[in-house]
Design a protein that fits this description.
Blueprint: E1 6-15, E2 17-18, E3 21-27, E4 36-37, E5 40-41, H1 49-61, E6 64-82, E7 85-101, E8 116-123, H2 134-145, E9 153-154
Parallel strand pairs: 1-7, 6-9
Antiparallel strand pairs: 1-5, 2-3, 3-4, 3-8, 6-7
Pfam families: NUDIX (PF00293)
Domain Nudix hydrolase: 5-144
Protein name: NUDIX domain-containing protein
Length: 166
């Protein structure tokens, strides 16, 4: 892979599930546009991981995290033409959200950098590779198995959706 020109993205992501449903956002930007994605995203300048996961989940869903644990870190690599790059390496720190307050919002405030149209709980059986990001697929496997995968995943093809799946 060393001959590929990579863009590197780094972010924190929360897994919130109850009653066999996963809390997802409706993505409106980036390589996962028009798919369900996990709430989360990039750190702001000087921000720590713990502050970032709380802020990102709140901004994208409306809930306030109260109790959480870090599950682990892994990366997804896939072709994506962005600026001068040919590939994307998305490094993700995953958190299991064990406690929160508030109600997830179907619509959230829009501002520069906001890539969520809102959130909702979706039945695990209704989340698949055609309508979800690879982060959602990993979260679904974690929920079903109780084991977190640490191996990076490379996709030789990645399809950017032009129409919403939600």
């Amino acid at each position: 892979m060393s001959n590929k020109f990579f863009h590197t993205a780094f972010g924190v992501y929360g897994i919130v599930y109850k009653d066999n449903k996963l809390l997802v956002i409706k993505k409106n930007g980036g390589p996962y546009i028009n798919r369900y994605d996990l709430p989360g995203g990039s750190l702001e300048n000087g921000e720590g991981l713990n502050s970032a996961i709380k802020r990102e989940v709140s901004e994208e869903t409306g809930i306030k995290i109260k109790n959480y644990i870090q599950l682990g870190t892994m990366a997804f690599k896939y072709p994506w033409k962005y600026q001068r790059y040919e590939w994307n390496e998305h490094i993700c720190v995953f958190y299991l959200i064990k406690g929160y307050e508030g109600i997830s919002q179907n619509k959230v405030s829009q501002f520069i950098g906001q890539d969520s149209l809102g959130s909702k709980f979706v039945e695990l059986n209704n989340l698949n590779v055609d309508n979800s990001s690879p982060l959602v697929s990993l979260a679904k496997r974690y929920i079903n198995s109780g084991k977190f995968e640490f191996d990076d995943i490379t996709f030789n093809k990645w399809h950017i959706l032009e129409k919403q799946t939600f």
